[in-house]
Specification:
It is elongated and about 90 Å long. α19 crosses α21 (434-454). A 5-stranded parallel beta sheet has the order 2-3-1-4-8. It has a 5-stranded parallel beta sheet with strand order 10-11-9-12-15. Residues 1-20, 29-37 and 481-486 have low confidence and may be disordered. The chain contains 22 helices and 15 strands. 53% of the residues lie in helices and 12% in strands. With 486 residues, it is α/β, with parallel strands linked by helices. The longest helix has 25 residues, at 8-32.
Length: 486
């Protein structure tokens, strides 16, 4: 993960130029707009800029830090925070039973992330209130790793009341038999405080080996009692930190354990900052774009835009644009790109699309249209290609029909008419003829390669499977961040 970085210089220059112009355009739109005649339009570049530069995430992180640390001077606190290399201060709790390797992992984490290592023993060493306050201030600014703290739910709640809230909680886990074996072979370096083991972790430096000391022996009965106490408390701790806790198997080489812990510590939790889905669906005729768009729209309350249906709706209105495109639709000719783009960008600029997001299919059909859409600042956050062979497309499209009485759709193979009466009145759309379909497929594949090149981060989904399986594949990539988002 690349941490959020944001310097004051970047803040001043970026916000002074890009956001200022965006806000001015918004103000001009609001002033000039007659709300009774036009739907509210918000420039799409505002949300795109904010998401691209993680402005929403930055604000979320800053507010979270303010609420946790409660500084006396919030403005000065934010200035210091923004001057840091990262505004995300590590706050880590490293929990686990005795002999699970907490000390070794905690020390390596602190070396790697340059945070304060806090244990119950070094807290008790701080004798004066002044020293404790200095340690607390330093830890807040630099971050911390709490090793073995808290041990009970009561301690966890007390820490929460004191404003000690972790970003990540790691729970090291291993079988009791392994932990008992580890406990018997521990050795301590009195100079560094590092923990070693005669079997699992042994220093390569001979000088270190010579100065190792036996740790104060803990009887097996005492260790078993400690493990039982840990098992009694761990369930409550899991519930307390369930939103940020990850269990990691400690019964593996310590290098692998540390790598997994570090990867989790450097990860960012699912952001609750505003994110507006902007989805493009591509695919040959019969790949199910309309159905998948409908399912996405219904579940996530985003605007479903089929370009063909949008053009028909505009032509039905008594507007200048409607009158202009009506002859094209009635004659079956293709509406000029300039008109389509004007209609589409006006619709995508409306408040519902800007605030809720959209899923678009049926446009763009070629590279030129896609580039014009991007030039209009309507840049998708997710692009999907539904893939299937021409044979499957022919089978799906040419055998489908509709009942003119009920409007129900049927298919000769997948969904036959329920009765002879319904069968006799079924109608086939002339546009679904094999000759027209083959022409559509030819046009789609002629443009598919260039569109795929324009969207290198697009996701490819096998459309030759159950619609709900397809939807699950789409959904799994909609709800999470893409790799380049984090």
């Amino acid at each position: 993960m690349t941490p959020i970085t944001f310097s004051l210089a970047t803040c001043e220059s970026a916000l002074a130029s890009d956001l200022d112009s965006c806000y001015k355009r918004t103000a001009n739109h609001l002033i000039a707009m007659d709300e009774t005649a036009k739907p509210l339009r918000i420039p799409p570049e505002m949300a795109i800029y904010a998401e691209k530069h993680e402005i929403f995430d930055l604000v979320q992180t800053l507010v979270t830090n303010l609420m946790v640390d409660k500084p006396e001077d919030p403005i000065q606190y934010l200035i210091v925070l923004l001057k840091r290399g990262s505004v995300e201060v590590p706050r880590v709790m490293l929990l686990g039973p005795p002999a699970s390797g907490k000390r070794t992992v905690a020390r390596k984490l602190c070396e790697h992330t340059q945070v304060i290592h806090i244990t119950d023993s070094n807290i008790l060493k701080e004798d004066t209130d002044l020293t404790k306050k200095a340690l607390q201030y330093k830890a807040k600014q630099q971050g911390w790793v709490l090793e073995g703290i808290p041990q009970t739910r009561e301690e966890a709640l007390s820490l929460q009341e004191a404003g000690v809230a972790p970003n990540h909680v790691v729970l090291l886990e291993a079988p009791d038999a392994v932990l008992i074996e580890r406990s018997q072979g521990k050795r301590i370096d009195p100079v560094t405080g590092d923990v070693y083991h005669v079997t699992f972790i042994w220093p390569e430096d001979k000088e270190v080996v010579q100065r190792l000391e036996h740790q104060k022996a803990v009887s097996e009965e005492q260790l078993v009692a400690q493990l039982m106490q840990h098992h009694r408390e761990v369930h409550a701790l899991r519930k307390t930190y369930r939103n940020c806790l990850k269990g990691i198997d400690a019964d593996q080489p310590h290098v692998d354990v540390f790598d997994q812990v570090l990867k989790y510590i450097l990860s960012r939790h699912c952001s609750v900052a505003p994110h507006t889905p902007r989805v493009l669906l591509f695919g040959p005729p019969g790949s199910g774009k309309s159905l998948q768009a409908k399912l996405i729209s219904q579940k996530y309350n985003i605007v479903n835009l089929c370009c063909g249906e949008l053009l028909e709706a505009v032509s039905a209105d008594a507007t200048n644009m409607g009158e202009l495109i009506k002859p094209y639709l009635e004659s079956g000719q293709q509406v000029p790109d300039s008109m389509v783009l004007q209609i589409l960008t006006e619709r995508l600029s409306r408040l519902d699309c800007t605030t809720r997001g959209w899923v678009l299919h049926g446009f763009p059909r070629d590279l030129e249209q896609a580039e014009k859409l991007q030039e209009s600042n309507f840049i998708p956050s997710r692009v999907f290609f539904l893939e299937m062979t021409d044979d499957v497309a022919i089978e799906r499209v040419t055998l489908r029909s509709i009942d003119p009485v009920t409007g129900e759709r049927y298919h000769s193979l997948y969904k036959p008419a329920p009765s002879p009466e319904v069968q006799t009145r079924l109608q086939f759309n002339p546009k679904d003829s094999e000759a027209q379909l083959l022409q559509q497929l030819k046009e789609y594949w002629a443009n598919a390669s260039s569109l795929q090149d324009l969207y290198p981060e697009a996701v490819y989904i096998n459309a030759d499977q159950d619609p709900h399986t397809i939807f699950e594949s789409l959904e799994s990539r909609l709800v999470g961040r893409l790799q380049n988002d984090s």
